[in-house]
Design goal:
- The structure holds three protein chains of three kinds.
- By secondary structure, chain A is of the alpha/beta class.
- In chain A, about 40% of the residues lie in helices and about 25% in strands.
- Chain B is built from nine helices and no strands.
- In chain B, helix 4 (about 70-80) crosses helix 5 and helix 8 packs antiparallel against helix 9 (about 185-215).
- In chain B, about 40% of the residues are buried.
- By secondary structure, chain C is an all-alpha fold.
- In chain C, helix 4 packs across helix 5 (about 95-120).
- Classes of the chains: A alpha/beta, B mainly alpha, C mainly alpha.
- Chains in contact: A-C, B-C.
- At the B-C interface, helix 3, helix 4, helix 5, helix 7 and helix 9 of B face helix 4, helix 8 and helix 9 of C.
């Protein structure tokens, strides 16, 4: 059975149906990318997974355990194992980089502070920000802030990492440094669900690509299948527009 | 608590109380528009008048915004007779509130005038509008739209402020509540209903201002 | 009636001046205590409105009604309401206490909105990121929201205090011996109203204007306006 299973998920934002009968699964170590036009429900799917979007019907199972989003304890256990990075404004502006990364491990997980500090320094060096430990978010570029956000998410030792268009708000020249950090994580074997518009990157790093439109999954397959040989017309339409073929 | 609430007596006098609301609104409207005249003139004087005029207006604004309206009205009502001017209560309150509002509105208008971006004026010039056309079609609508929320808010504040007229015997809403209280002694009931009437009046006025703002001035505001 | 100039030396006796100054102090005490308690209560209300537990829903509803009601009633009416409520409840307190309670109520209503605006000024993603990391509401507020929000809260809160110093004049109607009441006493004693109310106006100005300058300085330092600018 897959590590993360989503069955018949349906969710609304007010009156608008943002997820409509979504069936989806992720194995450990897989990197699944969600692509599709704006408003197709990609971000909504991630938000639903982490418990920020209330679900109408459907089931989500993590490692065999069904998550009841109305049960606070269930959601807490889920968030213990999943981590999310948003498009922007992730970092806590009132503390420096190091504290941003050590705050949750010490205050939420209750791990010893010396260990959290060591881990934080290690992670920040991994994403190339070992020199910026005591800088404040507003002193960093967008790309640097997103890399700190990645380190911060990793500090909680998640089993699945959700990345919600983490490069979409960045100036073009800053995108690559963030993608590089994600490549390192991919090489380390991190299970990830990535929502992105960076098609080249998606193609390179994903083990599977899922295309969504209007809240439904339109097509799913390997990057080659999706980009070179889309079966569904909507998918073909999207791919041709994105890749100019 | 050995006091039973009896709203019956007060309900009987509801038309009397509600009638006071009209007087409150009248007072507020007069004070507002009077204050607006002062405000526009004062703002223009501060922005375009000479140094001396600007300082005088500044002095007026600083004085009236750092002292309570109530004391200003007391001064007018009791003090002017010293100089031979005897004002009936309503007039004293109206003049006092107008002068007070004028000071606040001067500052509001000034901020509004200053909010014009140079780009807008330049854009108008490049399209070929004359100075007068620019003022009429570009500057004034911009100012009105920008100021509308602040002015609406000020109007509501003035409406609530009219309650101090009761202290001088004016029979607006609070005044009538006090009269009724002297008659029936149903104090809590009277003031609860009076409070309710003020809420109703301010909500209605607010709603009206918001809708007028949206349709005529395209100034968007929230109710809550 | 002797002219104003003739009255002046009789007006400016030690006793009168002391009386007026004590009354001014009462004005300040009333404003300060009411606003401080009001801020504490308003802060609590704002935090209450941030919670999402179903158990607290009735309290949240009550606090919303409270805030919306007392922001739309004149302070004079609130004073009378509290005064007569105290009477009805056999709550035998001085008019100063009644006025302080009224101030606290009004302060709580207005300041809870100021605090809420401050909380709302924190980008929602920061709060969602914290929530997704399993921070409790208390942790989100104390570690992330409040350390940033206080800068947005302070100038408008100070502005409210400043405006309240003027509103406190209405407490004179209840009999609180604050500055306006003392001016009325002077008037009743036979002095020219120009002297009595004029002195009050000057004293109010002396209290208010320097504080207003402090507020402007704070505005500049924090970069947050006291009033919402057009």
């Amino acid at each position: 059975m897959a590590f993360l299973c989503i069955d018949g998920l349906r969710a609304r934002y007010g009156k608008l149906v943002v997820l409509d009968d979504v069936n989806f699964s992720v194995e450990k170590g897989e990197i699944v990318s969600l692509i599709g036009p704006s408003g197709s429900g990609k971000s909504s799917l991630l938000r639903a997974l982490i418990g920020l979007l209330p679900i109408e019907t459907g089931e989500i199972r993590l490692d065999g355990e069904t998550i009841d989003y109305r049960d606070k304890q269930s959601v807490r256990r889920l968030r213990d194992r999943l981590a999310i990075v948003f498009q922007q404004y992730n970092l806590f502006q009132n503390m420096d980089v190091l504290r941003n990364v050590t705050l949750a491990p010490t205050k939420v997980k209750g791990w010893p502070s010396e260990e959290c500090r060591r881990q934080a320094i290690q992670l920040l060096e991994k994403v190339g920000l070992g020199e910026k430990l005591h800088s404040y978010p507003d002193q960093l570029s967008g790309g640097q802030q997103q890399r700190v956000a990645l380190a911060r998410a990793l500090a909680l030792r998640p089993e699945v990492l959700l990345l919600d268009e983490v490069t979409s708000a960045l100036d073009p020249e800053l995108v690559n440094e963030v993608l590089d950090s994600i490549r390192i994580l991919a090489k380390d074997g991190m299970t990830m669900i990535i929502v992105s518009h960076e098609m080249g990157f998606v193609r390179e790093v994903s083990s599977r690509v899922v295309m969504m439109a209007a809240g439904r999954i339109v097509e799913a397959g390997t990057p080659e299948e999706i980009f070179d040989n889309p079966k569904n017309e909507r998918a073909r339409d999207f791919v041709s527009k994105i890749l100019h073929r | 608590m050995n006091y039973t609430l009896q709203f019956g007596q007060v309900i009987d006098h509801l038309p009397y109380l509600a009638g006071g609301a009209w007087l409150s609104l009248l007072l507020a409207t007069l004070a507002f528009f009077g204050g607006m005249v002062i405000g526009i003139l004062g703002a223009m004087a501060k922005l375009f008048g000479g140094r001396i005029l600007a300082s005088l207006i500044d002095g007026y604004v600083v004085f009236f915004t750092n002292t309570p309206a109530l004391v200003q009205i007391y001064f007018l009502y009791f003090g002017l007779p010293e100089f031979g001017i005897i004002l009936p209560p309503f007039d004293a309150v109206l003049i006092g509130m107008t002068l007070n509002s004028g000071a606040y509105l001067t500052e509001i208008q000034r901020a509004g005038f200053l909010s014009i971006h140079r780009h807008e004026v330049e854009a108008a010039e490049t399209i070929g509008l004359s100075q007068l056309q620019t003022v009429w079609y570009v500057i004034i609508p911009h100012i009105v739209r920008t100021l509308y929320p602040a002015l609406s808010n000020q109007y509501i504040l003035i409406t609530l402020g009219t309650s101090m007229a009761a202290i001088f015997g004016v029979e607006e809403l609070t005044g009538r509540a006090l009269s009724l209280n002297a008659e029936t002694f149903r104090s809590i009931e009277i003031f609860l209903i009076t409070a309710g009437l003020y809420i109703a009046v301010t909500l209605a006025a607010n709603a009206l201002l918001i809708f007028t703002g949206r349709y005529y001035f395209r100034a968007r505001m929230r109710l809550f | 009636m002797p002219s104003i100039a003739e009255q002046l030396p009789h007006f400016l006796t030690y006793y009168n001046v002391e009386f007026l100054l004590k009354a001014a102090l009462t004005t300040l005490a009333l404003s300060l205590s009411g606003c401080v308690f009001g801020f504490v209560l308003g802060f609590a209300i704002a935090i209450l409105r941030e919670t999402r537990m179903l158990m607290l829903l009735p309290f949240r509803v009550v606090s919303v009604v409270f805030v919306e009601v007392f922001r739309r009633i004149p302070f004079l009416v609130t004073l009378f309401l509290v005064f007569y409520a105290c009477q009805v409840l056999s709550f035998d307190v001085s008019v100063f206490i009644v006025a302080t309670i009224s101030t606290c109520i009004i302060g709580a209503a207005f300041l809870s909105e100021v605090v809420r605006t401050g909380f709302d000024s924190i980008p929602i993603q920061e709060r969602e990121a914290a929530e997704a990391m399993n921070f409790t509401l208390a942790q989100v507020l104390t570690l992330i929201v409040i350390p940033q929000a206080w800068r947005v809260i302070l100038p408008p809160a100070f502005a409210f205090f400043l405006s309240f110093i003027k509103d406190s004049a209405l407490a004179s109607q209840l009999g609180v011996v604050e500055l306006t009441y003392s001016a009325k006493v002077m008037n009743n004693k036979g002095f020219s109203p120009v002297l009595g109310f004029g002195a009050a106006l000057i004293l109010y100005f002396i209290i208010s204007y320097p504080l207003a300058r402090v507020g402007l300085h704070m505005e500049k330092r924090l970069g947050i306006p006291m009033h919402r600018r057009p």
